[in-house]
Amino acid sequence: MRRVTHIIPTHTVLEGGGFKVRRPVAMGRLMSPFLLLDEMGPANYAPGEAMGAPWHPHRGFETVTYMLAGKMQHEDSAGNKGNLNPGDVQWMTAGRGIIHSEEPHADFQKNGGLMHGFQIWINLPAKHKMMQPRYQEIPADKSPITEKNGVWVRVIAGECLGLKSSIDTMVPIEYIHAKMDKNLLLEKEIESSLNAMIYIFGGEISVENKIIKDGELALLSEGKRITIQSNEPSEFLILAGPELNEPIARHGPFVMNTREEIHQAFLDYQNGTFVN
Q1: What is the structure's pLDDT at 134?
Q2: CA dihedral in degrees (65, 132, 126, 170; nearest 10)?
Q3: Has residue 207 been placed in a domain?
Q4: Residues with Cβ < 8 Å from 264, sequence gap 6 or more?
Q5: Regions in the chain scoring below 50 on pLDDT
Q6: Cβ atoms of residues 90 and 64 within 8 Å
Q7: For residue 207, what is the domain's CATH number?
Q8: Which of 16, 33, 178, 259 would disulfide-bridge 241, Cβ 3.0–4.6 Å?
Q9: Distances in Å between the alpha carbon of 166 and those of 84, 121, 137, 157?
Q10: Is the bond leading into 253 cis (omega within 30 degrees of zero)?
Q11: Does some domain include residue 276?
């Protein structure tokens, strides 16, 4: 059984044009291959108040945006455009380079409302860092969902409660959104070779008698299975992925293996050769 080895609290920071996100205090403690975990909101915006992330570059990793409430719009240098509504997932593999923006939809800007979601960064192994960018959009009605005995799950990537995601990942990722009523159990098998963690954003759960509360990230030990008990109505993410065992050079929106590759990314962006 997997157990909790560390519990990391979150703090609130400003991102993009100035929107608030909850982020684990020590991002360096995230387990490979995960580089960043941001909970966007939940925040209520008045009409014209919502902010997003204007045009900016990425290279060497993937961004996964998952909406719970609100409406965003995406556009990138590869010609992809789309709206993100509640339950939608946008999986963008930056690869050798992409420039994109994520802004509140015009309808949301006009009317305001609740904005809530997640953005997760996933590292790419060296052999894929300079691959062609790609974009996958999974609407809510195409995302596998099930509910059994008071436990609700959406399988964004990987498998849970007999459901499998159809998303094509560059590394074998588990990304599960779960909601549980009080005093229930969720058992999930995870490949023993994968790192695993749980982020809770509502309620309180226990893993092998270790309590995890709202706004906490729990890193898990090695093992083949986790058992989660809900001490009250709770909502959380289960994340798992492989240890890449490669050096990381990171600066802002670029994640490579060496400082030289980071320097080259800046040069490419400045001289206009960053994207095809």
Answers
A1: 92
A2: 50
A3: yes
A4: none
A5: none
A6: yes
A7: 2.60.120.10
A8: 33
A9: 18, 19, 11, 7
A10: no
A11: no
